[in-house]
Amino acid sequence: MDKRVVITGLGVCAPNGIGLSEFEAAMRTGASGIRFQPQLKELNFGCQIAGKPLVNDEHLNKYFTSLQLHGLNATGIVYGVIAGIDAWTDAGLSVAPKEGPDWDNGIIFGTGILGVDKFRESVYLVDAKNVRRLGSTSVLQTMASGISAYLGGMLGCGNQVTTNSSACTTGTEGILMAFDRIAAGRAKRMLVGSCSDSGPYVWGGFDAMRILPRNYNETPTTASRPMSASASGFVPGSGAGALVLESLESALTRGATVYAEVLGGAVNSGGQRGEGSMTAPNNEAVQRCITDAILNSGVSKWDIDTINGHLTATSKDVTEIENWRMAIGRSGDDFPYINSYKGQFGHCLAAAGSIESVACILQFKTGSVFGNVNCEDVHPGIAAIVNGAKIPQKTVCHTPKILAKASFGFGDVNACVIFGAYND
Amino acid sequence: MTKEQRYEKLKEIIKIYLPEDVLIKDVNLDSHFINELNINSANLVDIILDVEDVFGITLENEDMDKMQTVQDALMIIDKKLAAS
Predict the structure, then answer these.
(1) What's the domain count of chain B?
(2) Which of A23, A143, A174, B12 could form a disulfide with A17 if both were Cys (CB 3.0 to 4.6 A apart)?
């Protein structure tokens, strides 16, 4: 019999809030984390706005030693450590003693690309025939698993410590990987999350693809418009989210606070067949991912009362809503509440799934569904499927019982997780 | 820069690399970086880069190999500064 898996800790480093209380307040009030980025203007980007956490020296000195900060030039590691350590502390867990690790604690902390600024620094040194000046941490800051390695050492985890990578699906996929491991009894507690670096070298490729909005450089907070008729591309973001997943047994033994339960989920790929491609999803795969997630979780499609979509603010939002309708066979008044947080902090790429999952769990905690911003003009194709009242423009009081959260990524990969209110 | 000033500057560099249980007041001329100060060998690479930056010198591979103790480091710094 598989073990039940619950969420006992949350941490976040998001463009609109660092730390749970700041983030929760921002999500509730619709505060934006999208700002004009002078560096992008300087570099002739079409889209000169982005979501970037406002990390200051006080944060850095709280989470890192002066030795760790020496030569640290990897924003993803900074965001991931802040979110990861906060989630661990929030769960009431301690750091393993110096003598040995805790064999029951593991980490799955994903990323798309890590330490881009450090890598740039290294490239310049290597090309100048100065490889000897790279220092001892250029590898650690630029290897994809650098983030799980940093956290693993700080916390002393002795179970699996790894990094997953599946583009914008990364964060949601990681939750299901950790869920499987705990359900199978191979670990008691897993810190799971994902991070994404900030900056022009991460965002440039998307600007070149002309999929970012270019007409909002003077009005950044209105640029990210999921589900809106005037959506014109996703706003690039960055940051990290983290959750502690734990067997219910372990949580009860420790007397930990349980935020919600992970009921199950599914991951799949459309194989870049049919309408699927490197950058667009195969619709059948998306629908199967959702229906499989519902099936694996042992709930009925009628039980889902809240959805947090991928919904990046492109013309594809309509297709996503149509896929949800096909998968759950519900529309109009019967459609669950649905929201996208990307209106507030943009598309945080590899970090999207984890930051958004943290916000989903906060909806259980606060008994609310956070409002959608910038979609006063709901796209007519979406309005034809979902009753407008189910796309709240402001935060509404509604305690989710069963929430479906999905993420889709480049490479035609999908993940859908089902969270449930915890009932003992 | 006097010899004393060079020593103080070197100690400032070493300070952040010391593990928690080693204090800067425990550092003396004879201290062995790895065996006594418990400095991670990977970090020794960074100490060398910091020494280059702070003293404006360039160390060769053989200098790095010889740099076992604080005294060794000071001697190499003195030699490089004298030659520049």
Answers:
(1) 1
(2) A23
> Is residue A46 in some structural domain?
yes
CA angle A93, A95, A101 (to 5 degrees): 115
Q: What's the pLDDT score for residue B20? A: 86
Alpha carbon of A136 to those of A141, A399, B12: distances in Å? 10, 49, 19
Task: Report pLDDT digits (tens) over B20-59.
Answer: 889 999 999 999 999 999 998 889 999 999 999 999 999 9
pLDDT at A163: 98
Strands (DSSP E) found in A62-156:
105-111
Cβ separation B49–A67 shorter than 8 A: no
Q: Is B17 on the interface with A (CB under 8 A)?
A: yes
Residue of A nearest to B16 (CA): A67
In 3-state terms, what secondary structure has residue A194? Answer: strand
**What per-residue confidence (pLDDT) applies to B65?**
87
Cross-chain Cβ contact B16/A70 below 8 Å: yes
Q: What is the ipTM of this complex?
A: 0.88
pLDDT confidence of A191, banded at 50, 70, 90? very high
pLDDT of residue B63: 87
**Same-domain status, A241 and A154:** yes
Per-position b or e across A51-71, b if 16+ CB within 10 A of its CB: bbbebeeebbeebbeebbebb
- Partners of A268 in the β-ladder: A414
CATH number of the domain at B55, please.
Answer: 1.10.1200.10
Contacts with B17 from chain A: Cβ below 8 Å? 67
Range of the domain at B28: 3-83
| Residue A277 shares a structural domain with residue A404 | yes
Residue A65, domain member (yes or no): yes
| Closest partner CB to B43 (pick from A66, A133, A136) | A136
Residue with tokens 């492109």: A314
